[in-house]
Each structure stands twice: as structure tokens, then as C-alpha cells.
Design goal:
The chain is α+β, with helices and mostly antiparallel strands. It has helices spanning about 5-15, 25-30, 35-40, 105-120, 135-140, 160-175, 185-195, 205-210, 220-225, 235-260, 400-405, 410-415, 435-440, 460-490; strands spanning about 65-70, 80-85, 90-100, 125, 145-150, 275-280, 300-310, 315, 325-330, 335, 350, 355, 360-370, 375-380, 390-395. The protein contains 14 helices and 15 strands. A hairpin with a 3-residue loop joins strand 7 and strand 8. This is Integrase catalytic domain-containing protein.
């Protein structure tokens, strides 16, 4: 009913009815180690992991990033755009693809739109799309000396440059093709020209100038009838442009990291640590399948960290049947705190009519219920602790089972486990509401008298049980009245 509230809310709720020294600290530790709270609560802090920018390249079209824009309206049988971006000059090429594209078709599109102009790159950064993870794609590039670099699972920020270009393409097509959405394929070449001739603040120039060493041609002279002059750069001029480009990118990257780190936290885990993993159920169903996505947990686990990859990625020990990559960004991980309090063991998995089936293994006590006028037994069930025993009607048990479970001395270990008193303020109801553990522990105790209950080898008969029960009820009722009077007399 409390809803697993945060620390302050839980402490406020408890402090209305209870007080003991260290209440706030105990509430803090309990919530910190609560398994369900750790998995269900949403994150309300800055993401973990400081920004780790990729190294700045030094050559034009030697290091590229690649991605797809999918689910576009059909235009000339095309529904997808292959985006290829140079990480140094920020230049880009866009290739249209049909809906049912494969790894060989994507590789051919790369050669037709990018490879014929710049050759094969030294490195390719991409996400973990099935095309980029296919054997054909891997063999095609690696046999030519190209290194494939993939982003970590569920962390598209690794390839943030291409994601930003995708947004530019969508914006351009949205402006020029919103009235005729099925004509976007005809505008794709102009979208590429517009992007490559647009000034980039991070580079301090246009991608066209970075690649060709001169400003892009302007259409204004052709419109107004003026002459157009072409500037042919020399080698020194070309080197100065590339040097200026590298300096500008370095400054822009440092500025970007400085601002990004203001809203991110540095979190470091060690090998062997237990962490929770934030998953996207709508994108995977092998690690933790769940039909109803609305009420899914925020985190799953715990899982053990096997290895640290770089500065902000970790390899986890996931189940062998899991079909997702084992390396995750630190922003998807959260340290797991094991509970320091004993947890309740679950009932067996066997069910009847939707309810778990359990078997009695010990009868810990007997009593006579005055409200129901019948005998009751304190039964410990299979798979549960003695402290979790419950009172049931004695008539519900088989007579042979009762005789077997009540053999003298057989249940001494369970009776000893119940002799630890638990301080409970009873309600004004009958003996059924009194904690069975505290009742059993206080049985037969008089003020100043040391109980010999632990050394008893026989069960108390019904008359003794009734007298003990009446004595405990009377004693605890008096204690409750005294405690209430004590709290009433306390000054505000």
C-alpha cells in the first residue's frame, strides 16, 4: 500500500506513528537495498559517464560513419536512405535504397555513391544493425584493411554525428517535400548539395571547402548575369585549409565536452561488481520477455561485470541464450545493492486453480480459538522459514500428518527458532492478531522469571496453552495502555 516511496516520503509516513533512534538511517538503508525499488524506480539523476569523443581524423574521407533513415514513403520504389558521413570534413553522401535491402545491395550502394569518389575508408563507425553485423559486410571491408567500429548496445550517442546528419536530411525533406511526400527521391541530390555547401560551426567552413579547398560555386552570378571565377588552390593553400579545419574541430570538440560533462556524472565500476541493466523491451525479448510494456521494470538483473571496455563501457555476464551484445554504456548501468534483511522465500511452483501448492513440514504450536471455538495449529510450510508459520484449523490437516509432525522432540529446532522475541504493539483485536513469534517467546514468562521453555521436550496441552494465551493478552494490553499514556503525556 505504501507504494515503495522515496526515502523522505517513507520516513515521513513512519514518523507519524513510530520513533526510535536512527529511524531515518534505517529507512535509508532499507530503501537503498530494496530489490524491487532498485529495479522499478525511474532515474532522476544526470546520466552516468562523461563524454568520450572519438579521436579527430587527419585525412579526408579516411574515417566515416554510416547509418540508415528508414520508413520513408515510397518514392520510385525507395523507402530508405543510406547516410555516409566523413568524420573529418563533415561531408556526406546520401544513397536511396529499396525496402528489402540486403548487405550486398548496401555495399554496392556505398561503392556507387561514395566509394567511387573517395575509395575505401580506414575505419567505419556504425550501430549494431544486422546489415553491419553480417558476415558479408564484415568480409567486404576487412579484407581491404578497413576496421569496423560498432556502438555499444542501446547507446546511439556513440554515432552521434550521423544521427545529427539524419536530422538535417529529415528537416530538408520535410520543408521541400511535405506537399508531395512521394517525390523525396528526386530531391535527395539537392539535399546532399545543400548540406555539403552549408557552413559548419564546428569545422569553421563548409564540407565542400574542406574537401576541394575552395568555396562552393554560387548560383547568384548565373542569376544576375555576372561572371563566375573559379579559384584553383595551390598545395600550400590546401594544407592551410586542412590545418585550420583540424584546429577548429579540436576547439569545437573541447567545447562540446565541457558543456556535456556539466549534465553527466562520472561513474566507475570494477570487475566483479553487480549492476542492474536498463533495457528496451520493445527492441529485445530474449533477456527478459514481457508482454505488457507499459508496466515493465526500468532495470533488470543483477548481472556481474566481466570487463571494462575503454572509459565508459562494460562487458556483462548475461545468460547464454541472450541475443544482444554483451557490452553496454555506463549510462545504462546502475550499481546493485543486495538486501541485508532476510527475504521471504517463494512457494513452490506447483499450482492448483492458480494458487501455489505447499506442504506442512512441522506443527510448531497448538491453541484453542475462542472466537471460532475450534483447535488451531501453527504450521510451518515447505519452502518457508519458521518465522513465516501460519495458524490454520486443525481439522484441515490429516490426522496421520498431525500425529507425525507432533512427535516429541522432532520439531525442537523449529521451536527454538521461535524463541527470539519481537517487540510488537498488539491491536485491540483477539489473539489471532498477536504476532505468533512474540507470543511463543513470551509464553510462560513472569516478570523477573527466566523462561525454561527452550529446554522443554514436550508440547503444552490445550489448558496450558489457553492460560498462557490469556496471560500474554492481559500483559500486552496493559503495556499498550502504558505506552499510549506515555506518548499522551509527552509535551508537543
Amino acid at each position: 500500500m505504501a507504494g515503495h516511496s522515496v526515502i523522505t516520503a517513507t520516513w515521513k509516513r513512519l514518523s507519524q506513528y513510530f520513533y526510535w533512534p536512527g529511524l531515518l538511517q534505517e529507512v535509508t538503508e532499507y530503501i537503498k537495498h530494496c530489490d524491487l525499488y532498485q529495479k522499478a524506480k525511474s532515474r532522476n539523476t544526470y546520466p552516468a559517464g562523461l563524454l568520450q569523443p572519438l579521436p579527430i581524423p587527419t585525412k579526408i574521407w579516411a574515417d566515416i560513419s554510416i547509418d540508415f533513415i528508414t520508413h520513408l514513403p515510397t518514392s520510385k520504389s525507395y523507402t530508405t536512405i543510406l547516410v555516409m558521413v566523413d568524420r573529418f570534413s563533415k561531408g556526406a553522401h546520401f544513397a536511396p535504397l529499396s525496402a528489402h535491402y540486403t548487405a550486398p545491395l548496401v555495399a554496392q550502394a556505398y561503392c556507387d555513391y561514395c566509394g567511387k569518389l573517395h575509395g575505401l575508408p580506414e575505419t567505419v563507425v556504425s550501430d549494431r544493425d544486422s546489415i553491419f553485423l553480417s558476415q558479408f559486410w564484415s568480409t567486404f571491408f576487412r579484407q581491404n584493411g578497413t576496421k569496423l567500429r560498432f556502438s555499444s548496445t542501446y547507446h546511439p550517442q556513440t554515432d552521434g554525428q550521423t544521427e545529427r546528419v539524419n536530422r538535417c536530411i529529415n528537416q530538408y525533406l520535410r520543408i521541400f517535400a511535405f506537399q508531395h511526400p512521394r517525390h523525396w527521391a528526386q530531391l535527395l541530390s539537392w539535399a546532399e548539395y545543400h548540406y555539403n555547401t552549408t557552413f559548419h560551426a564546428s569545422a569553421g567552413m563548409t564540407p565542400f571547402e574542406a574537401v576541394f579547398g575552395r568555396p562552393p560555386p554560387c548560383f547568384i552570378p548565373a542569376i544576375i548575369g555576372g561572371p563566375g571565377t573559379a579559384i584553383i588552390p595551390d598545395r600550400q593553400h590546401r594544407e592551410r585549409i586542412l590545418k585550420r579545419l583540424h584546429i577548429n574541430l579540436t576547439k569545437a570538440q573541447a567545447k562540446m565536452k565541457r558543456f556535456a560533462d556539466r549534465k553527466q556524472r562520472e561513474v566507475v565500476f570494477a570487475e566483479g561488481d553487480s549492476v542492474l541493466l536498463r533495457l528496451h523491451p520493445y527492441r529485445q525479448a530474449t533477456l527478459h520477455p514481457q508482454k505488457i510494456k507499459r508496466f515493465r521494470l526500468q532495470y533488470y538483473g543483477p548481472f556481474t561485470i566481466l570487463e571494462r571496455i575503454g572509459e565508459v563501457a562494460y562487458r556483462l555476464d548475461l545468460p547464454s541464450d541472450c541475443k544482444i551484445h554483451l557490452v553496454f554504456h555506463v549510462s545504462l548501468l546502475k550499481r546493485y545493492y543486495y538486501s541485508t534483511t532476510p527475504t521471504t522465500q517463494t512457494l513452490p511452483t506447483h499450482k492448483s486453480r492458480g494458487r501455489p501448492i505447499s506442504h506442512p513440514i512441522a506443527i510448531l504450536d497448538l491453541r484453542h480459538s475462542t472466537t471460532e471455538n475450534e483447535e488451531q495449529a501453527l504450521v510451518q510450510w515447505d519452502g518457508q522459514l519458521p518465522e513465516e508459520a501460519t495458524w490454520i484449523k486443525l481439522s484441515q490437516l490429516d490426522p496421520d500428518t498431525v500425529s507425525k509432525l507432533r512427535q516429541p522432540g522432532d520439531n525442537q529446532q523449529y521451536r527454538d527458532a521461535l524463541t527470539t522475541p519481537i517487540n510488537v504493539i498488539p491491536s485491540d483485536s483477539t489473539a489471532d492478531n498477536i504476532n505468533k513469534t512474540s507470543l511463543f517467546a513470551d509464553a510462560g514468562k513472569e516478570p523477573g522469571h527466566k523462561s525454561q521453555h527452550n529446554n522443554s521436550k514436550t508440547w503444552p496441552d490445550r489448558d496450558d496453552t489457553d492460560s498462557i494465551l490469556s496471560h500474554v493478552i492481559q500483559t500486552r494490553t496493559q503495556n499498550t495502555i502504558s505506552n499510549n499514556k506515555l506518548f499522551t503525556d509527552m509535551p508537543d
